[in-house]
Amino acid sequence: MIEVGKIQKLEVVKISPKGVYLSDGNSRESAFLGKKEVPNGTKVKDRLEVFVYVDSNDKLVATKVKPKLTVGEIGLLRVVSTSKIGAFLDWGVDKDLFLPFKEQAVRVEKGRTYLVGVYIDKSNRPCATMQIKNLLSTNSPYKENDKTVGTIYSMNPDMGAFVAVDNLYDGLIPKNEIYGVFRPGDQVDIRITKVREDGRLYLSLRSKSYKQIDKDAEIILNKMKKNRGELNLNDDSSPKRIREELNMSKSAFKRAVGRLLKEEKIEFFNGGIRFKKM
Predict the structure, then answer these.
(1) Which residues touch 149 (CB under 8 Å, ≥6 apart)?
(2) Which of 52, 93, 125, 155 is such that its CA lies 20 to 30 A from the CA of 214?
(3) Ramachandran region, residue 45 (left: φ > 0; alpha: ψ -120 to 50; beta: rest)
(4) Is the distance from CB of 4 to CB of 124 less than 8 angstroms?
(5) Cα dihedral 205/206/207/213 (nearest 10)
(6) Per the CATH hierarchy, to which homologous superfamily does domain 7-63 belong?
(7) What residue spans define the domains of the chain?
(8) pLDDT tens for the 278 residues of the chain, in order
(9) Is residue 115 classed as helix, strand or coil in its secondary structure?
(10) What predicted TM-score, i.e. pTM, was given to this entire model?
């Protein structure tokens, strides 16, 4: 049986002025390969490596062009258009790949890229899905404190951001590790904080604690410089206000302030902190 959405070798069973018909040799169905892609000297019974998809007329079409993704694979594809029934993605062949509304984790936008997997729908057509969790592996080579990159594929306000690490492995950035605004499709630099027994990865957007303190301290100092040497935040400030002002947690703020106090770069005053007067 010819496999739709896959690269495969098929046998030439008929040659016409417009191209050739290809078959797997075990069924009556065939896929058509246009003349411009047929190698010179091709004969009946020759075997050609092609990719097969379904055209707008429900006919099997073959091409020697390799798509960006095949069925079962995951990768980043760009949205070329949207419609009332879904979106269409550029996957490298003449007919764009359909992403149905029901398979979208968020409403996608034209021109943006999103991480998707390819599956075969009930009509035997290749389609895209953003619901890729079951396509991700839990057998990663990573260990604690390794650094790599990933793509956010789903957001859950109660849990955090689900990430495809290297676009291959399943991981989670817990909500208390998320600083800033993110959405599916965003690519992020990450650090592995834990490898669970089931192989799934816990992740952080932040550097190891002692390195992050230096970065947070620099953020605080820069904010003070822009505010005439003062910052109206202290240990009693709410976590929400600290996050709005500095994009960091209250605990991170307190650690960085402690470092700056120890280095005698800042001092407290009524309502906040300021550069220490010499």
Answers:
(1) 165, 166, 187, 188, 189, 190
(2) 155
(3) left
(4) yes
(5) 170
(6) Nucleic acid-binding proteins (2.40.50.140)
(7) 7-63, 74-133, 137-204, 209-275
(8) 899 999 999 999 999 999 999 999 887 889 999 999 999 999 999 999 999 999 888 899 999 999 999 999 999 999 999 999 999 999 999 899 999 999 998 889 999 999 999 999 998 899 999 999 989 999 999 999 898 989 999 889 899 999 999 989 999 999 888 866 788 888 888 999 999 989 899 999 865 555 778 888 999 999 999 998 999 998 888 888 898 889 888 878 888 898 899 889 999 988 899 998 76
(9) strand
(10) 0.67
d(CA 209, CA 13): 65
Q: Phi/psi class of residue 130: alpha, beta or left (left: φ > 0; alpha: ψ in -120 to 50)?
A: alpha
What is the fold, at CATH topology level, of the domain defined by 74-133? OB fold (Dihydrolipoamide Acetyltransferase, E2P) (2.40.50)
User: Starting at the edge strand that comes first in sequence, how are the strands of the sheet with 272-275 ordered?
Assistant: 230-231, 272-275, 266-269
Paired with 201 in beta bridges are 171, 195
Fold exhibited by the domain 209-275 = Arc Repressor Mutant, subunit A (1.10.10)
* Strands in 71-112 per DSSP E: 74-82, 86-90, 97-100
If you compute the radius of gyration of the chain from its CA atoms, what whole number of angstroms results?
A: 27
Cβ-Cβ contacts under 8 Å for 59 (sequence gap 6 or more): 32
Euclidean distance between CA atoms 23 and 14, whole angstroms: 9
By the 8 A CB rule, do 78 and 89 touch? yes
| Separation between Cα atoms, residue 201 and residue 172, nearest integer Å | 6
Identity (one letter) of the amino acid at 60?
L
Q: What is the CATH number of domain 137-204?
A: 2.40.50.140
Task: Please tell me if the domain spanning 137-204 has the same topology as the one spanning 209-275.
Answer: no
